[in-house]
Write a structure and sequence with these properties.
The complex is a heterodimer of chains A (237) and B (292). Chain A has 237 residues and is α/β, with parallel strands linked by helices. Chain A has 9 helices and 10 strands. Chain B has a 4-stranded antiparallel beta sheet. The chains are: A alpha/beta (237), B alpha+beta (292).
């Protein structure tokens, strides 16, 4: 693969990215690339900057320095009006689910398609029903999030992240508040999304999770990327 | 647009309790400001009714003929602020005086000759500017050679005009203060609605909604709140007005004056203002929620 092919194949490119909040640095000089259809873990202890990295990726925060290119869009130069376009390419899954409490599961998932500009109710219905079937929640379509278990909420969140057929799925500690069975089910769904062609980037502090996947791992500590034996040691711990 | 309306109605239903509170706040605000307007309009009309009794009497010199008096009346009628001029002969004046005195008119029976001169009765125009100029008008009339004396309720008119001015200034100041207070209350109530929905708005943005997708239904909801609140407030005032009306009718507390409800143009203006206040409240509140 030559250099141009390699660049073409990249969907995320971070170069020298720094994020600080006043005097506190969350990320320092972070550089990495993610290829299309990669399955990638970002790991590290609490406070390492994993969640900040996810926020930078979906433009929940702006970087302080460096540049990042996501699917051809330079986040350092992106205008306010382009942010929604970027976000429509990304499905985000949060540890605390972030489902809208007074909308049903169906409505939560369908909202992504409404935002994307789908007008046909029948198209939206069909696609949402398919996704709810995939995540095993067809019977909970009319339920409100507060009535669901943690695992069900996270599966609804996965359905929401997948319904817009995004090129990238970001999952910020998706299994942190789930029991082992529910965690396993959510990870299977993320694998399914990967199998459908999405690039999946998962942050986790659970190093046991990493041993079960043959996936690329980026280790962060105090906002910096750590490579080599130190990282391997931490991951194997 | 249909999609925006559908989402606005759906959100309206979904947050019905908070919207209900906001609607009630707007209705109450509209009720208060409309009640003020109703009071000031009717008080203004009441003052106008009192003004109708005001006149300037110009007593003519004894040698002025009826023809000269008629010419003078025509001249005076051309002055700005004059509504009408009528000629009252000394004889008619005495008859009117006897009628007013009633049983006491016997006092006048001993008079050998009529002491009342012929006169012109000048009625100022029914507006406050004409009233304010009454003093100047009386001075001009006194300057005519045919006129021997001019008489009018100068002090009363000045006091009346002063009260009217104070009333007008108070009405404007009160209306301004009430409007600002209502704008503040409505803006904060709408802010409360948006604050309770901040997580929903944040999530909608994360999944890729642009500003228009979020803002348009919110503005529509604010306009709906403004219009429904306006209608409810005016309906409350209408109900209160017609339940109190019998007590204020010509047979009641104000026998000489017919209290009126707000004119249609003002009702429409209040409704549009109410919608505008809803929109403005939304505009002020929404900006902070949509910052990146």
């Amino acid at each position: 693969m030559n250099a141009i092919d390699a660049l073409d194949n990249q969907i995320i490119r971070f170069h020298g990215v720094t994020k600080h909040f006043g005097e506190t640095y969350a990320l320092r000089d972070l550089t990495f690339e993610v290829r299309k259809n990669d399955f990638l873990f970002i790991t590290g202890p609490s406070g390492a900057g994993k969640s900040t990295l996810i926020k930078l990726l979906y433009m929940g925060e702006r970087m302080s320095d460096g540049y990042a290119i996501i699917d051809g869009m330079n986040l350092a130069r992106i205008g306010r009006r382009q942010i929604p376009q970027l976000r429509r390419k990304i499905g985000v899954i949060f540890q605390d689910f972030k489902l809208i409490a007074n909308r049903t599961v169906f409505q939560n998932v369908a909202l992504v398609m409404e935002v994307a500009g789908f007008k046909s109710r029948s198209v939206i219905r069909q696609r949402v029903e398919d996704l709810l079937e995939l995540v095993g929640l067809p019977h909970q379509a009319d339920a409100y999030p507060p009535t669901l278990s943690g695992g069900e909420k996270q599966r609804a969140a996965v359905a929401r992240a997948m319904v817009g057929k995004p090129r990238i799925i970001l999952a910020d500690e998706p299994t942190a508040s789930l029991d082992p069975d529910a965690s396993e089910r959510v990870l299977q769904l993320l694998r399914a999304a990967h199998a459908r062609g999405a690039t999946v980037l998962i942050t986790t502090h659970d190093t046991r999770l990493l041993s079960r996947f043959d996936a690329r791992v980026i280790y962060l500590e105090s906002g910096r990327r750590v490579d080599g034996p130190a990282a391997a040691e931490n991951v194997n711990d | 647009m249909i999609d925006v309306c559908r989402r606005a109605l759906s959100d309206f239903y979904r947050h019905r309790y908070l919207h209900g509170v906001c609607l009630f706040t707007i209705a109450l605000s509209v009720f208060i400001i409309s009640a003020f307007a109703l009071f000031f309009i009717n008080a203004g009309e009441l003052m106008g009714a009192w003004q109708q009794g005001i006149r300037i009497t110009a007593y003519l010199k004894p040698d002025v003929t009826k023809k000269q008096a008629a010419e003078l009346a025509t001249d005076i009628e051309q002055y700005a602020g004059v509504a009408s001029v009528s000629y009252v002969s000394g004889k008619e004046g005495l008859a009117w005086l006897k009628e007013q005195l009633g049983a006491g008119s016997s006092l006048l029976s001993d008079l050998k000759e009529n002491p009342l001169p012929d006169a012109l009765e000048i009625h100022p125009a029914k507006n406050m500017a004409a009233m304010a100029g009454a003093d100047r008008l009386a001075g001009k009339i006194a300057g005519f050679a045919e006129v021997s004396d001019v008489e009018y309720a100068r002090e009363w008119m000045q006091r009346f005009y002063g009260i009217y001015n104070l009333f007008k200034v108070t009405a404007f100041v009160m209306a301004g203060l009430v409007f600002v207070a209502i704008l503040f209350i409505v803006a904060n109530t709408i802010r409360l609605i948006l604050y309770s929905r901040r997580e929903e708005i944040e999530i909608t943005r994360i999944i890729g909604a642009d500003e228009a997708f979020i803002k348009h239904p919110l503005y529509l909801e604010a306009l709906m709140l403004g219009s429904f609140g306006g209608v409810a407030g005016l309906a409350m005032l209408y109900g209160a007005f017609f339940s109190l009306m019998p007590k204020l009718s010509p047979e009641g507390l104000l026998p000489f004056f017919q209290v009126r409800f707000l004119p249609l143009e003002l009702v429409l203006a209040i409704l549009i203002s109410s919608m505008f206040v809803g929109w403005l409240g939304c505009y002020f509140s929404i900006r902070r929620f949509l910052r990146v």
